[in-house]
């Protein structure tokens, strides 16, 4: 497999988010490249965001470094500090444990495409704008109750 | 640091290759992004290859997964099976332990640019075309003698 052929890798818009938080990512189409390519040291996801879609709910991880690079189109990176337009070749890094929630929003009228790198997190994730937390392998409310 | 500003990250064309193998990578300019960005789960290098430069001597790692994505320009990916032209958006994965040496050559007349992902290898690396091996933290000949 010299050059990765994306067309043979399954694309999914699935999410584990409970309603009503799932709707924001219904236009997020993910290909998980690492299993297909035989990589296990880190994960690589190829993501297409349809117009209006978010990459995730805005979040940060206690124990997962994340890195993204834009491949095409335009997305807005939203963090605590504000909004940054991201275009092909633009990159951003999200070190674990930094409590600055982030996500990408496609506010354009065309698709955008990026790669996301990370390792499967063992610890919790925190959601900045909504009553949601990933804790102990489940999505829960901030008071710890299950959805 | 919402969008990574490459211009503030130091660029180096250093190499540990012994002569005469160092010359091939003298036009390879690397920025190590992970330390600057606070990432430790995996490494990310931004690499510019000047015309004529190679990304490395052709090699494979016993214990390091590698992944590359082209950002601009054109390079030729050389593996045991042959040559593949890589352009912006093209990706390739090199699973650890697969004895298929790989590198990128810039045979064009302009710069090319890519990102390379991996984790610091603890084990050996094997060089496909030359009398070189990375073993026990040193560059040695195939017979084990030091340079």
UniProtKB/TrEMBL annotation, chains A, B:
The keyword Metal-binding is annotated on this UniProt entry: yes
InterPro entries: Cupin_2, GPI/OXD, RmlC-like_jellyroll, RmlC_Cupin_sf
KW Metal-binding (keyword) present: yes
Segment forming the signal sequence: none
One Pfam family of this chain: Cupin_2
GO molecular function: metal ion binding
Gene3D superfamilies named in the record: Jelly Rolls
Keyword list, A-Z: Metal-binding
Cupin type-2 domain segment(s): 46-116
The protein's name in its UniProt record: Cupin
């Amino acid at each position: 497999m010299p050059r990765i052929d994306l067309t043979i890798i399954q694309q999914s818009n699935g999410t584990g988010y409970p309603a009503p938080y799932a709707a924001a990512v219904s236009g997020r189409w993910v290909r998980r490249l690492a299993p297909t390519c035989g990589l296990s040291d880190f994960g690589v996801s190829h993501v297409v965001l349809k117009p209006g879609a978010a990459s995730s709910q805005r979040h940060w991880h206690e124990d997962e470094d994340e890195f993204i690079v834009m491949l095409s189109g335009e997305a807005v990176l939203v963090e605590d500090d504000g909004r940054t337009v991201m275009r092909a070749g633009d990159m951003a890094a999200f070190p674990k444990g930094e409590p600055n929630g982030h996500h990408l929003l496609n506010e354009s009228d065309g698709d955008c495409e990026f790669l996301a790198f990370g390792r499967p997190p063992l610890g919790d994730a925190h959601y900045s704008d909504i009553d949601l937390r990933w804790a102990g392998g489940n999505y829960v409310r901030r008071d710890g109750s299950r959805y």
